[in-house]
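User: Could you write out the 3D structure of this protein bound to PRP? I've included everything you need below.
Assistant: Certainly. Input first, then the structure.
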Amino acid sequence: MKKIRIAVQKSGRLNEDSMRILKEIGIAIDNGKDQLKASARNFPLEVFYLRNGDIPQYLRDGVVDVAIIGENVLIEKGSDLQFVERLGFSKCKVSIAVPKSSKANSLKDLAGKRIATSYPNTVQKYLQQNAIDANLHTISGSVEIAPSIGLADGICDIVSSGSTLFKNGLKEIEVLFESEAVLAVSPLISEEMSTILEKIQFRIKAVLKGRNSKYILLNAPNDKLSEIISVLPGMKSPTVLPLAKNGWSSVHSVIDKGQFWEIIDELKASGAEGILVCPIENMVI
Ligand code: PRP
C-alpha cells in the first residue's frame, strides 16, 4: 500500500509537539537518531524530517503530501498553499518591536526606518497594506540583536513567551498576526493520499476535541437535578444514574476546558457534591 508522506520540522520548537500529535492519533514511528525519514509501523505513513523553511517548497513540488508547519512559515514562504487543520500548538505572534528607549510607538513611526527580519515577504506585504515605506534588512537568525548592534531601528520576528524581546530590551509595538501549527497540504496530493489524509484529520479532530474537554462526574440530590443539568451541556445531554443512597443521583457530562472553573462554581452553588474531573484522551463525535 502506498504511504502518505508527511513533513515535520527536523529540530526546533515544532518538532516535539508534531511527533506527540502523531503518537496521540495512534501512529507509531520508530525514530532512529539522526534519521531523516521514518515509516510508521501501524499506518501507511512516512515521516520526512525537514528544515522548516524548506517545507513549503516540498509541498509545492509534491515531494511530500502534507506537512505540520507553523502558520508563520506558511504565510512567509507558502502563501499559495492551503492548510486543512489548525493544530492548537506552537502558538506565537509575528510582531514588530523596537528598543524600549525608542520614540516609535506604532508602525507608522517606522516609516523610512530600518527593520531587520527573517520574514521579509510578510513584513513587506504588511507595510504595503498600511502604505508605509521602510527599509528591510533580511537576516536569518538572532534578529532581536539587530537594534543594539546598530543594524536596524526595529525588528519583526516571532514572539512566544516574550522573553527574547525582554532580554534584548525591546518592546512590541505591532502584532501582524497570531500563528499556530497547521496541517498544510500539497496542491499535487493524489486522490488515494487524500483518503488517507481524511483518516488523519478525523483522528486529529478527536484528539484536539478531547484536549479541549473534560469529563465530569458529580453527585446531586434529586431535587437539585434540573438546576444542575441546566449548567451541564454534555455531548447530547448529561447521563443521570441513581445512587445507592435514596434521593441522590450521579451525573456525568463533558464540559469545555475553557469554561471549567465557571461551571464548577455554578455546580457547587447548585448543590453538587463529590465533583470529579477527568481528562479525555479522544472524543469521537
Ligand atoms: C524564535 C524567534 C525569537 C524567539 C521568540 O527563535 O526567532 O528569537 O523564538 O520566543 P520567545 O518570545 O519565547 O522568547 P527560536 O528559538 O525558535 O529559534 P530561531 O532563532 O531558529 O528562530
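The longest strand covers residues 170-179.
User: Perfect, thank you.
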